[in-house]
Design brief:
The protein has 298 residues and is an all-alpha fold. The chain has two domains: 40-163, Tetratricopeptide repeat domain (Serine Threonine Protein Phosphatase 5, Tetratricopeptide repeat, Alpha Horseshoe), CATH 1.25.40; 168-265, Alpha Horseshoe (Serine Threonine Protein Phosphatase 5, Tetratricopeptide repeat), CATH 1.25.40.10. The protein has helices spanning 2-35, 40-52, 56-69, 74-86, 90-103, 108-120, 124-137, 143-163, 167-185, 189-202, 207-219, 223-236, 241-251, 268-271, 279-286, 292-296. The termini are far apart.
Length: 298
């Protein structure tokens, strides 16, 4: 009887030791798991979930924390770009998406979202380039692949209908247009005129090129050529306020007199038309020619 009790007592102690050993092992495993940080992509995805659930501050907090630790990680930049896009900050979104695809050139969804941001900015040429890359390297079964493909098809039809050219010609024309803008802002009016005329040869109905030609001719004192260019821009788009305002300035010039007005860096369709802002009203208000009350129609 005594031997049986002794054996039971020994077995009990043995069981208790095993339990303690198992608890120790369990704690070690949990500690190891906690020491290993969650996957970065999972954390970014969780930030998206927070945003969708209305926890926007928490989403921003998480992404900013990731940015400090993993500034160059492609998916962290993608998450930051998406967050900027949600808030309508497309310039910042574009930069983050560019960072993402620089870090991971085969990240098709990054190219697609870059295209979306360019589309929101009315930068059609860059949008086309980004969507094309998303289609080239993307998963044919994905939603973004089909959306990019559809947008490219729509743009191809629109460009052919409006200008009778291909998407490649449209992109080439946009490249020359940007060169004209660079020359214009550096004050090289003659070179700018040459680039805008080349643009029109490729994209015949590009309103901005005619509007910019009007400014360049006016800067050189060529009043008639300037007015003709503004008239063509207004003919293509009667609501092109930038051309309407600049034409009024040039009308006041004498023949041979150069326009002294500074050339502001304005992307009219992106900064005004797409945002339902009125360039004319804002100009008049900023020069105290109209009050904000008059502007609101009250």
């Amino acid at each position: 009887m005594k031997k049986t009790k002794k054996r039971q007592k020994q077995n009990h102690k043995k069981i208790q030791k095993q339990k303690k050993r198992q608890e120790k092992i369990k704690k070690q495993v949990l500690s190891a798991r906690e020491a290993s940080p969650p996957d970065i992509e999972d954390q970014v995805s969780y930030a998206f979930e927070l945003w969708e659930d209305g926890e926007k501050k928490e989403a921003e907090k998480l992404l900013n924390k990731l940015k400090k630790k993993h500034r160059n990680h492609y998916y962290v930049n993608y998450g930051l770009g998406a967050l900027c896009g949600f808030r309508g900050k497309y310039d910042e979104a574009i930069q983050f998406f560019k960072n993402a695809i620089t870090a991971n050139p085969d990240f098709a969804e990054g190219h697609f979202n870059l295209g979306v941001a360019f589309q929101k900015q009315y930068n059609i040429a860059e949008m086309i380039v980004a969507y094309r890359q998303a289609v080239k390297i993307g998963d044919p079964d994905s939603v973004y692949f089909h959306h990019a493909q559809k947008m490219l098809h729509v743009m191809e039809e629109q460009v052919r209908e409006s200008d009778g050219i291909s998407l490649d010609e449209y992109i080439h024309g946009n490249t020359i247009f940007n060169q004209g803008m660079e020359a214009m802002y550096s004050g090289d009016w003659k070179r700018a005129i040459g680039q805008f005329r080349k643009t029109i040869e490729i994209v015949p109905n590009q309103t901005q090129s005619y509007g910019n030609l009007g400014i360049c001719y006016a800067k050189l004192g060529k009043r008639k050529e300037a007015l003709d260019a503004f008239d063509k821009a207004i003919e293509l788009d009667p609501n092109y306020e930038l051309a309407l305002v600049n034409r009024k300035f040039v009308e006041l010039l004498d023949d041979g007199e150069c326009l002294n007005k500074e050339v502001a860096s304005i992307e009219y369709y992106k900064d005004y038309a797409m945002k339902n802002r009125s360039y004319i009203n804002e100009y008049l208000e900023s020069h105290n020619l109209i009050s904000s009350q008059d502007n609101s129609g009250e």
